[in-house]
Design a protein that fits this description.
The complex is a heterodimer of chains A (256) and B (323). Chain A has 256 residues and is of the alpha/beta class. In chain A, the strands form three sheets. Chain A has a seven-stranded parallel sheet, with helices on both faces. With 323 residues, chain B is α/β, with parallel strands linked by helices. Chain B folds into two domains: 172 residues, HUPs (Rossmann fold, 3-Layer(aba) Sandwich); 123 residues, Rossmann fold (3-Layer(aba) Sandwich), CATH 3.40.50. Chain B has a seven-stranded parallel sheet with strand order 7-11-6-1-4-5-12, with helices on both faces. A five-stranded parallel sheet of chain B has the order 15-14-16-17-18. A three-stranded antiparallel sheet of chain B has the order 8-9-10. The relative contact order of chain B is 0.12. The chains are: A alpha/beta (256), B alpha/beta (323). Strand 14 of chain A pairs parallel with strand 18 of chain B, so a sheet runs across the interface. The structure holds flavin-adenine dinucleotide. Flavin-adenine dinucleotide binds next to helix 6, helix 7 and helix 8 of chain B.
């Protein structure tokens, strides 16, 4: 099987995010960078498929030079090779640009199935998987929590509001991964050593021939709206506190 | 020139979903600023009757694509039909719901139309003739103001954030022929959640429990409070990973993002990844015995005490209040 897993490097979930004074983005200085947690599910699922069915796992990533570390992490988990699309022209890219860049590379590789995270936890947009599927003209299965491979098709579970869908799709297709799909493995020490020797192709925008102008632009980045300071509900006994809380919710917050 | 605001309505089992009315109302507000029309796309089988309800919430014109092959929802069939109707009618702005289906569809349609999309917005306005969409980024640690440099300008709106207000317009039906090609995907089964509870993303009230609940059976006291408030029970990742609650109950950065009117966090410390999922709730209550727990920095009302003593009392109080 020819399996592709797309990965993105994002700030660690614990990262403090500071908006630049001029609103042009965030301060990147103090940030610890990690693989997008949803992409970890994609890499893990790719490796599981390969272990069961044979084949090869290629990691494709758009990101600045530092993102190479994330590609190496995926290789250390067990992927075979990587393509790193890296160009300052992608610095302000939106999902449309990224999806087309990924597609330009993936079109040149044999591909039976392509994994993405269901969203990246930096811009939280959740668009790349679907846009990539469109660019490749293949079906998409988004927010997947279970996958069964059956030769020329896959069967997946997709939770929606108040229900679960079971869907069957012909390959090739794009699958976007949700928590619950699997437990991503950690890279082993031998895995980390081996990863250093695995091939990673670095390509710039010109080499893959895609436009880099974003359609959706972040005109301004602002801090979250401030919440008014809260109240600690008074009372000597739990019962008194509960009564006072009920009163506040009813009369002040009008929430019940 | 592109003109007007179009919404992509969502229905399931022949009923409009609440987000569709939120979209209609929001579109109406935007269109009224420029004196434009609001139109809607409604796809499915035997759903023409729903157009009137969209009209009630401010839609002038409804494009109805009625075809058995559009039911149940399959991405590619809906995306083709939606993109075609948008192209044929050339709206300036298109709004989707940021529901599971809306997110799945909007990104595919935006790619088909080679335009940009602002996902999961909490505010949209028109400024100098252009849409400005505000959306949380980095799990709500900052917000981005997005402009789309292509046509149409597309945004998806976070459910439960925008009010749905009646504002009667014609809701006139225009039938469109949608040809559906043979699909590569097939829905084999729809397994409905039989709990009768509203999904967390649409709930008005959420009572969530964390590691402080100590075990799965103890969630019963949260279920009781939620029942009285007509709410849904949620959970922190700690409670889900412990196997006390199903994955679908998880609120947070790797769970659901929710915006209920009232969010009651019980025995949840308020880790940054949990806050990411619930900080856009309108009123936040925290019940935690540790006065230093970070959840109190986000709470409108905090109760520092043992949840096992407070919650049953609160349930009794609420029972009287809502009676
Ligand atoms: C990549 C990543 C993604 C994550 N995604 C999520 C996510 O989506 N959602 C999420 O929730 N977490 C997420 N987490 C985990 C998060 O960091 C925390 O570990 C988790 O939220 C803690 O859950 P908790 O508050 O229930 O447990 P704890 O932090 O252990 O807090 C339990 C609280 O209960 C209180 N308590 C105990 N007993 C009582 C009592 N009798 N009465 C009152 N209070 C009591 C304690 O004082 C304490 O504050 C993520 C972490 C990572 C690394």
């Amino acid at each position: 099987m020819n399996i592709i897993a797309c990965v993105k490097q994002v700030p660690d979930t614990e990262a403090q995010i500071k908006v630049k004074a001029d609103g042009s983005g965030i301060e990147e200085g103090q940030i610890k960078w990690v693989m997008n947690p949803y992409d970890e599910f994609g890499v893990e699922e790719a490796l599981k498929l390969k272990e069961k069915n044979g084949g090869d796992v290629t990691i494709v990533c758009v990101g600045p030079a530092r993102a190479m570390e994330t590609i190496r992490t995926a290789l250390a988990m067990g992927a075979d090779k990587g393509v790193h699309i890296s160009d300052p022209a992608f610095d302000n890219a939106d999902a449309y640009v990224i999806a087309n860049a990924l597609a330009a590379v993936i079109k040149t590789l044999p591909h039976d199935i392509i994994f993405c995270g269901q969203r990246a936890i930096d811009d939280d947009a959740g668009q790349v998987g679907a846009m990539l599927a469109e660019a490749l003209n293949v079906p998409q299965l988004t927010i997947v929590t279970k996958l069964e491979y059956a030769g020329s098709s896959v069967k997946v579970i997709r939770p929606i509001e108040g229900a679960q869908l079971s869907i069957e799709t012909a390959l090739p297709c794009v699958v976007t991964c949700q928590k619950g799909l699997n437990e991503p493995r950690y890279a082993s020490l031998p895995g980390i050593m081996k990863a250093k020797k695995k091939p990673v192709d670095v390509k710039n925008a010109a080499a893959i021939g895609v436009a880099t102008d974003a359609k959706a632009k972040v005109a301004k980045t602002v801090p979250p709206p401030a919440r008014p300071p809260g109240k600690i509900v008074c009372g000597d006994e739990p019962a008194q506190k509960a009564a006072e809380l009920g009163r506040l919710l009813r009369e002040e917050a009008k929430a019940i | 020139m592109a003109k007007g605001v179009m919404i992509v309505a969502e229905q399931r089992d022949g009923a409009l979903r609440k987000i569709s009315l939120e979209l209609a109302s929001t579109a109406r507000k935007l269109a009224d600023q420029t004196g434009d029309e609001v139109s809607a796309i409604l796809l499915g089988a035997g759903i023409e009757g729903l157009a009137a309800e969209l009209g009630k919430f401010g839609v002038d014109k409804v494009f109805v694509g009625d075809n058995a092959a559009l039911e149940p929802y399959v991405t590619e069939a809906h995306a083709d039909a939606t993109a075609k109707i948008i192209k044929d009618n050339d709206p300036a702005i298109v709004l989707f719901g940021a529901s599971v289906q809306g997110k799945d569809l909007s990104a595919r349609v935006a790619a088909k139309l080679a335009t940009g999309l602002a996902t999961d917005c909490t505010d949209v306005k028109v400024d100098g003739g252009k849409m400005v969409a505000t959306r949380p980024m980095y799990a709500g640690k900052c917000f981005g103001e997005i402009v789309i440099e292509a046509t149409p300008q597309i945004a998806s709106l976070r459910p439960n954030v925008f009010p749905a207000a009646e504002n009667a317009k014609a809701g006139a039906v225009t039938k469109v022929d949608v040809a559906v090609e043979a699909q590569k995907s097939k829905v084999l089964e729809v397994q409905k959640d039989t709990s009768g509870k509203v999904d967390l993303t649409e709930a008005n009230v959420i009572v969530s429990g964390g590691r402080g609940m100590k075990g799965p059976d103890e969630f019963k006291i949260l279920e009781e409070l939620a029942d009285v408030l007509k709410g849904t029970v949620g959970a922190s990742r700690a409670a889900v990973d412990a196997g006390w609650r199903p994955q679908k109950d998880q609120v947070g950065q790797t769970g659901k993002v929710v915006s209920p009117n009232l969010y009651i966090a019980c025995g949840i410390s308020g880790a940054i990844q949990h806050l990411a999922g619930m900080s856009s709730s309108k009123c936040i209550v925290a019940i935690n015995k540790d006065a230093e727990a970070p959840i109190f920095t986000k709470a409108d009302y905090g109760v520092v005490d043992d949840l096992f003593k407070v919650v049953p009392e609160l349930t009794a109080v609420c029972k009287k209040l809502v009676a």
